[in-house]
Specification:
alpha/beta; homodimer; globular
Chain lengths: ~325, ~325
């Protein structure tokens, strides 16, 4: 009997590393995890991870054959198979991740960042099936993006294409501080953290009453602002409006660079649905050059947020295989 | 004897349409032109142009064989072979240019805008030979751009990728008016016209003496500002500095989208060399995310400005042929 082919999708985060075995239809057959931050050395991390993968696969292996490893990681470099200067991982500098994996397997190993993985995941399993030109924007703690041009993920010369979260909304130095060291990056507006920052700004400028005035910056999260907005909280609604204004402004730039068929929003902030989509779409249209107006679809990601990272990571291997 | 293969490169401008027969090394074997604005109908224009091409080719045909037609035109759509709503041509709406050409020939006909043509020209004949990921920015009366990703020109879903001249430098409505109907487009700064506008702004704000105060906006051109700056005119120098600030800011965005190996500057404004390259490079570096710093080359185009449009247009046919 021919075995079902699966890809091991691995999502490396600052705290946990989650993996699963994913078939071509996006079914996840087994999932497990290890603690990323228990391993001060990447070598030890990869060995432990590999052991855990083998153990997990043993439980399902009578039916399945692993055909490769797709890894999503912060600052994952798809050209080199490395992780380079990540802010939130225990391993500093450049980690040759694919090389470390190759000590344990002869199968293909692909490394990239989570936004690129989400973009390929959208193409292989999600709402971008059949699309040739689209962009996925991830709106989580930060903001990432993955560009697909003519059916292929854009890598860039150094493997770092799609860092639009760190393009600025205006020139000058009187803009919001970003964790990257620059000022005014769109990520400081269009992300869960950005929404909180904007809420504080609106709260400072306005005298409207709001239940959210009870909470500290640290206590607040995007979900609370979302819930308040649904209940008609004017400050929360204004924060979403302003976030959509900044995001829509920047998405008009995205359209003018690669002229995509669609832009997908993915991640926590995208779950706010109309609260974020409506103002974003409105301001994007307002800022689009006339030849693009009414033509760029702004869509919700079809990857479930829960499994998206593992799905996205696994999709890289399917994608490369199908282009060969 | 085998004939030398040539492509007919055609540059359609508002006043003149220039064409030439270009071999694979970028040698132009014959050049001629017709008046674009003498033809109120595109059908008549194409017939007259084709007649002129046949006549010009007759003079050299014993040696050469035409293998295709590459056409650069404002708002040229590479997906559809059309010109769509151009501002400066006599034919309004959508002109099915490739289709009209096909009435006269069975050879390949490719249509695109001048910035895309310049990008492919740079790859086939110019400074981007061997590069896989780069961007060409054209700085003329307006500002255009052509993106090459993984060795291929980015078309986009609607055939209109690379209109970064019409991305805005900041959100809001208190920005410079652009001819496209929007506000604050980078083209209103980074172009020959933009330089003049910036000069007037600097002149208004400053009390420095300047020979340029003698000239009206209409009398001024980029060359005069260039010459004045070379002679130490502080207002002209400040205008270049500000232009470089805006352009560098926007080129950092370009780097974050597709992570190119190089960005080429092409066109009249690029001829100002260090006056424009130095501030542009400085502000680009300042605005780059750390992973890109020191890695994105800012280069002068190697296409001669004089023949670039015809060269660029012809390169499209070579490029498509070599990818087959």
């Amino acid at each position: 009997m021919e075995k079902r082919q699966v890809v091991t999708g691995i999502d490396i985060g600052g705290t946990n590393t989650v993996f699963g075995f994913v078939d071509r239809d996006g079914n996840i057959l087994g999932e497990d995890r290890i603690k990323t931050n228990h391993y001060p050395e990447a070598t030890g991390f990869v060995s432990a991870l590999f052991e855990k993968i083998v153990a997990a696969h043993r439980k399902i292996e009578q039916d399945t054959e692993i055909i490769g490893f797709g890894i999503g990681a912060p600052m994952g470099n798809i050209n080199k198979g490395t992780i380079e200067y990540p802010a939130d991982l225990p391993w500093k500098g450049i980690t040759p991740l694919a090389e470390l994996f190759k000590r344990h397997t002869d199968l293909p190993v692909v490394v990239t960042n989570d936004a690129n993985a989400a973009a390929v995941g959208e193409m292989i399993y999600g709402g971008a099936k059949g699309m040739k030109d689209f962009v996925v924007i991830t709106l989580g703690t930060g903001m990432g993006s993955g560009f697909v041009v003519d059916g292929k993920l854009v890598y860039g010369h150094d493997g770092f294409a799609g860092e639009i979260g760190h393009t600025s909304i205006r020139p000058g130095t009187s803009n919001r501080d970003c964790g990257c060291g620059k000022k005014g990056c769109i990520e400081t507006y269009a992300s869960a953290t950005g929404l909180k920052r904007t809420l504080l700004k609106v709260m400072a400028d306005s005298i409207s009453p709001s239940d959210l005035r009870k909470y500290s910056f640290e206590e607040l999260d995007a979900k609370m602002i979302h819930d308040a907005a649904l209940k008609g909280d004017q400050i929360a609604i204004a924060a979403f409006e302003h976030t959509g204004m900044m995001l829509g402004f920047k998405l008009a730039d995205v359209a003018a660079h690669t002229n995509p068929e669609a832009i997908f929003l993915f991640g926590g902030l995208a779950l706010a649905r109309d609260l974020i989509f409506e103002p974003t779409r409105r301001y994007m249209e307002e800022n689009l050059l006339y030849i693009y107006r009414g033509k760029v679809k702004l869509l919700e990601s079809k990857l479930s947020t829960q499994n998206a990272a593992v799905l996205g990571a696994s999709s890289l291997v399917w994608s490369i295989r199908e282009q060969q």
